[in-house]
Amino acid sequence: MSYPKNKNKGVSLIEIVIACSIISITLLVLVSVYSAVAKYSLSNVRTLKGTQLVEESVEVLHYLRDSGYARNIGALTNGTIYHLYWDANVNSGSWTATTTNILLESRFQINVVLSQVSRDASFNVVSSGGTVDTGSRKATVSVSWKEGTSTTTKSAETYLFNTFNN
Question: Which residue, 2, 33, 108, 166, is most buried by CB atoms nearer than 10 A?
């Protein structure tokens, strides 16, 4: 009795090698895509946090204005970089502006710079000329943090008025 020769000898081994190669390449691509998505997600989280810190800092300036414009805003020097922080040792906790550099979460640096406001005869804010309004200040808030080898910054401007004459 004679058996027919198997003409497909070794085909199974080639199929296994090809299947393993396809699976390996697919896994490599999936890991690369996951790595890129994770990197961009973390970057986006920092950007959102920075933007929220800018908004929070503007609200802190409004709080400082409301709780005593002369003491908290009027006493600060124009053009000086201030940093906002929560001082738990003052009156059961209070926001304070200081010239000491403070990093939030060891990453975010919040800067506040105040400048004078000038107004024209119609009491409109003007960029040049006019009369200095001692009851108003322009505040520029910026939050910066390191992203790899570069620095990212988000900023906003607001005007602070001595609304309550305090």
Answer: 108
